[in-house]
Amino acid sequence: MNRLHAAALCLLLMLPLFARPASAATTCTGSMTNMTFAATSGGVTDATATLTITCNTFGLSLLANARVNMCMSIRSGTDGGGTLNPRRMINTFSDPMNMQLYTDAARTAIWGSRGNATVPNPALLQLTYAVPVLGGGATQNITLYGRIPAQTGLNAGTYVNRFTAAADTLIEFRYDEQLLGTPPMPASCISGGSAGTSSQFPFTVNGSVPDSCTLTPKPVPNMAFGNVPGPITSNVDQTTSIGLVCSGRTAWQIGLNNGLYASGTTRRMRNGAGQFVVYELYRNSPRTLRWGNTLGSDTLTGTGTGTSQSLPVYGRVGAQAPSIGSYSDTITVTVTY
To answer: What's the predicted TM-score (pTM) here?
Structure first.
């Protein structure tokens, strides 16, 4: 009796082990690297970042496979002004720079957000992986392709868009598993199978526009005083202009040196016989502010607009009695920014 009773007791203890239903929990998370564009002055600039997706399933009792159907949404970003097309970065003055994020290397398919009316296409991912007795998982990298399109009038500065708030990125997924074999793939990331817990993959997009200035045209047009009968008994005035294109918000200074034949700070033109005519260059039309080459003192200062700026140079030859001849000098224009 004692032996039979012990055997029956063992059988009763074992029955619940075989009757326990198989179940599993699947979690999926994502981690995105930041995207940093090279500095641009308005041309097309490309960059990439990497999204790493990891899914894990635990709780199956026997060898099996898990399947996951996933959508990964990216919205406009904290600094994007609420628009997905185009997306934007801003600098510290809130100046915008257009940029875009894509799912493909050709940069034709915008990486959007599920349910968005403008760009409803999130990135899609399907995973199938083995889940042995103690659980299993899979990791996959997805490339995010970025582009700053060609654009004009950009202001200098560092630009950013942060996709770090809870509403900026989103992973949605459905999963299915079974005790043995491979289950069907859930119909989509929001239907079929079991619902997974949503998560985010925060990241930042950075770009910059350097300070830049270009003289245009170059060389600067000559200043011609013309034919003047001697002796010179009254002022002879002429002007020319310096064309300058600087990126917006770029602070600049333009200096003019004293020329080839100056005596101290007195500018002079010279003829072929080595004789001179004294002249001067000014920053203002009344010709009271000499235009020199000392930064922060006698240079012309301003701020770039991203478009061409025309800066007049005012010249004057005062009364004097030079010898007959043709006189000239060469001035070097220096732009500091």
So the answer is: 0.81
